[in-house]
Amino acid sequence: MNYTFPNNFYWGSATSAPQSEGYHPLDGKGQNIWDYWFEQNPELFFDQVGPETTSTFSQNYREDLALLSQVGLNSLRISISWSRLIPEGTGAINEQAVIFYRDVLSTMHTLGIEPFVNLFHFDLPMPLQNVGGWENRDVVDAYATYANTCFTLFGDLVPHWFTFNEPIVIVECGYLDHFHYPCIVDSRRAAQVGYHLALAHALAVDTFRTGGFSGEIGIIVNLSPTYPKNDEPQHKYAALIADCFLNRSFLDPALKGTFPQPLVDILKKHACLPTYSDSDLAIIAQNRVDILGVNYYQPRRVQAPSTPNTHSFMPDTYFIPYEWPKRVMNPYRGWEIYPEGIFDLAMRLKTEYDNPRWYVAENGMGVENEQRFTNESGQIQDIYRIQFFYDHLTALARAINAGSNCVGYHVWTGIDNWSWLNAYKNRYGLISLDLTTQKRTVKRSGEWFYELATTNTLPKPLAK
């Protein structure tokens, strides 16, 4: 079939400040939790490559943005570094950061790239972590002030704002596992962090609207359609609870203004309900989003645990992973490739959430040692990535034809960037980055994406 997308569809890519900008003292930037963690434990990071050696966007942003324009992007999601703009998290503004971000945004406009700007991408200023981080209600208020500062300083250049990227990851990886700093494993504290993040989001939306700022505001959530092992009641219940924990915990507040009742009931049962107030709940109820960003990489398949965890309360008390025998895997990232999941998510948003205005905020395929696919002219022939995009976009086009209100598709990412503990182990970009020379080279997928974005029609994948 010939898949054509709606007029004015947003074709773009996404990145974040901590993954692309570079070394933390640059131009007055303060230390964030990733800078600190790498300073303390560099051995935890792949090849001991930390955030100071990201993809030097700070020095090369004009050339980088021009290159992204050349692969057809009409939009780009970046984030603002809180610790760069307000080095201590509260108080004095770093004027050099203001100049930097205004020039980045102005350059995007000059090139015909529409800015999508996210306020927080896992990079809490370290001084705020030192007072308890997201467990501390004062940090919620500091975030609301930071958000208002950004709206005031950059609002004339930003038509699309987002409060958080993947807030459930902050909870899951930082407070239920050891994947992100502060590496705390405590369900009660995790619930408090999750509640405070939802409240911080709602306060930022309220600040945006009461301040009369132009444009739209939303949140970016990572959603995985959740499938039970089979139709047996215990496995269907496991899928319900997994969905409430990992999808609906932030999706429902953003779109419905409420938390999912099964999640509330479980937290109450285990004495893990966060400290809250009725006035805060009212703020969450009254401040639903204008637009939703959805990061989709993989489905979630679960089953009921055969031996329930009774010694403590964690999500695996109720659900554990299930390996579907028919799964197709990305062996480098360890994630299942399931394009049909994006269709299922779109239909769920349509039927259960009043068909909101939304876009695919991230979708991509990370591959290790991509240099082995370089041809004689020095270009990476990432045919596998093109096939990945094609399959997911085919499913997305079907969803749009079925009435989904999807307005765009952003890949992760434009230029290979640093990725937390994995550093540069897996590459995702349309454009490759040589870490030694910092040379950027358009991959074969970048050429394919140009055809997609400039024709608004899905090109055929390439023969292997």
Descriptive terms for the model:
464 residues, TIM Barrel, single chain, alpha/beta, 15 helices, 17 strands
By secondary-structure content and strand pairing, the structural class works out as alpha/beta
Write down the Rg: 21 Å
Helical fraction equals 40-55%
CATH level 1 class label: Alpha Beta
The figure for the number of domains is 1
Instruction: Report the CATH architecture.
Output: Alpha-Beta Barrel
Number of strands: 17
- Overall 3D geometry? globular
CATH superfamily, by name, is Glycosidases
How many angstroms does the end-to-end distance come to? 20 Å
Query: Beta fraction of the residues?
Result: 5-15%
Largest sheet: 8 strands, parallel, barrel
User: Under CATH, the topology is which?
Assistant: TIM Barrel
Number of helices: 15
Biggest sheet strand line-up: 1-2-3-4-5-7-12-14
Oligomer: single chain
Q: Kindly state the mean pLDDT as a whole number?
A: 95
Q: Spans of 5+ residues with little confidence (pLDDT < 50)?
A: none
Q: What can you see in these coordinates?
A:
α9 (187-210) packs parallel to α10 (233-255) and α9 crosses α12 (278-286). The protein is an alpha/beta fold. A hairpin with a 4-residue loop joins β10 and β11. The chain has one domain: TIM Barrel (Alpha-Beta Barrel), CATH 3.20.20. It has an eight-stranded parallel beta barrel with strand order 1-2-3-4-5-7-12-14, surrounded by five helices. The chain has a three-stranded mixed beta sheet with strand order 6-8-9, covered by helices on one side. Strands 10-11 form a two-stranded antiparallel ribbon. The relative contact order is 0.14. The chain is built from 15 helices and 17 strands. It is 40% helix and 14% strand. The protein has helices at 17-20, 33-40, 57-70, 82-85, 95-110, 126-129, 137-154, 167-175, 187-210, 233-255, 261-269, 278-286, 340-352, 383-401, 444-455, and strands at residues 10-14, 75-79, 114-118, 160-165, 216-222, 226-228, 291-295, 300-303, 320-321, 329-330, 335-336, 358-362, 367-368, 406-411, 426-427, 431-433, 440-442.
